[in-house]
Amino acid sequence: MRALLEAAFETFVAKAGVGLEAFRFYGDEAVAEAVDWCVDRFRTADLDPARLHAGSCSWRLFTEVGFWLAQREGKAGYRSALARRAVGALALAWVASADESPEAIASNHVDVRRVRERIVGGVTTLRDTCCAALVGWWLVGSARLRRAWFTDDEPSDLWDTAIAAEHPRNPKARSFHVADALFRYLALFAGLVQRDGADESHRACVQTWFDRCSNEPPYEVGRAAVRAALSGLPSRQMTTLRHDGVTTLLRRCLALAELPPDDGDPLVRALARSSLRRSLLHRFKIEDAGLTERIHSLKGALE
Amino acid sequence: MTTRPPPDPIALDALVLGTDDDRETWGDLLASPRAADLWHAAVERRGALDDFAAVLTAYPWLAGPSIGLRRAMRRARGSAWPGAILDLSSPLTASLGAPETSSVALTQGETRVLEVAHGNSVRIELPAGTQLRRLTEQGEEPFDAPGWTMDPGDGVVVLVAVRADGTPVATLVLTEKAVGENGG
Known about the structure:
The complex is a heterodimer.
Chain A: H1 2-15, H2 30-44, H3 65-85, H4 102-107, H5 112-129, H6 132-141, H7 143-150, H8 157-164, H9 172-189, H10 200-209, H11 223-229, H12 235-257, H13 266-275, H14 279-283, H15 289-297
Chain B: H1 9-17, H2 23-30, H3 35-58, H4 63-75, E1 84-89, H5 91-95, E2 101-106, E3 111-116, E4 121-125, E5 130-136, E6 139-143, E7 147-149, E8 156-163, E9 168-176
Parallel strand pairs in B: 3-9
Antiparallel strand pairs in B: 1-2, 1-4, 4-7, 5-6, 5-8, 8-9
Helix pairs in contact in B: 1-3
């Protein structure tokens, strides 16, 4: 327990540069002091496992620095301490953007706060359904969207760099990961991923690309696990099925992007138009000239 | 309106784990042009912590020495150490014509966990004035070899880079890589 706490506090304090003064741990050995406090807290406090996050009911709890600092300060005090350390902290307010991109146009018709909540909900769904690493690739591919909806920052080199990185060409794998993450986010956001009652090809697709996977490429469930979930389907048949499933899912996403402007959910349409890329076809080894052309014709498919 | 600064590493870790999905914190992240880099770093930090925790769970004897090493390495931060280079090589990729080695840096004060497949090796290039010691359940011993080739049954191999005066500056934990199915 001590060794894990020591490793965790050292990771965030000594290496990531987070100071512990705001949490009343001072001195050269603030890490050791914090570890002692956490161990004492664990011994004396009545921690209710039922109130812990499911993933925290294990040794991992002792690596979660945020949990222990919230124990020390109380939830409100913890948030307040984080906020005090943030420079120039101000409440997020309504965004009025001059951006005329499809997503920004959509945002003019919807309460921006609600849009933000929905987008954040999509991110947590992607993380919980697949893995945290894919969220990182979604963040790469969504810079323009995020600038339009989450900030009114003036143009800056940082944003220019982030937006330029949306369409990575090299290495190719990076382009695949970004296209993949945007696609999976969209499919989940639009409610196109069904776990029950779907046809077999869709189930094969969902089992492979919309289930918990590791944070390592290719961010998908291993073949053996997918085959087991599909009643021991032969390997070749499973490959064909999931390929058909993901191709159909892509067609359905494209159909959302091609809806007339006043038809359907404007946010879903805007996301669909900015989330589908040709490199997605290469990522999933889909050879279909018609799909290539349809994606190419979408405004925003710039790669 | 001024955009708030992005979340700090502790708050980001809670977002990565899903233990505290505070909407304002998410908003601060998504409002940052550096969001992707910050997130990738947070995922990497979490992965390193989980890897270390998995090693400790499998080899509990490492807990005590680990605390001592970390504290000693923190105290030694005052004097700079240039770092070591770890060259990882795989006889399989070499035979397939792929790049034979990949390199990663081992920095001062770091405890790095690396999974090494059987037959693969890690060669350690140390700066002048630094030696390796091997930590075992029975204690510490000198280690004169330039690296380690992982064989079945090796379990965990802990190598500590120390200065001439014996001060530890970095720790390398090598574990056997489990044989798993392919992802494709």
